[in-house]
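Notes taken during the Thursday session

The instructor put the following on the board and asked us to keep it in front of us for the whole hour. The protein is Polysulfide reductase. We were told not to look anything up and to reason only from what is written here. First, the residues (177 in total):
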Amino acid sequence: MLDRVATGGAAALGPAVLTYTAVLACDTAVPSWHEGYRQMPFVFAGSGIVAASGMALAASPAHHNGPARSAAVVGGLLELGAARVMRHRLGLVGEPYQEGRAGRFMRAAEVLTFAGAVTAVLFGGRGRPAALASGAALLAASACTRFGVFHAGRQSAEDPRYTVVPQQRRGRTGEER
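Then, after some discussion, the predicted structure tokens were revealed:
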């Protein structure tokens, strides 16, 4: 009985726990975070799923990690897809996600997410070494995503054009946000 209640509680609270930091970051004046308010929660949700599946792959026996392998694929697709859509929709304000330290973290996140998910699917069920390797890659990918978002925010806050140019465009078009 307790296990069902705990599972239900986790299912109900999981999405909020995965995305609340993104919502908090987007509710700031930091241009690359604030303007990403539509996709950032999805990026963080995918990143959280990737991290959880990575930990599960690293901690569970290979013959029991099927759900973790599936979660790695779902989380990876969500994270990578949402991050690409976000960068595309941000336009100028999305540049920091592709440049400097943030860009390096975001590219590393893409490579590690892809490598971790593919390794999990192809080899993760065959033995511990592959499951550990894919789990480590997925955990590192999630960390890289979070650090990439953090550094993109710092980079966008340091350059006034990421604040001034979007404000000028909104002023010309009468757009509110």
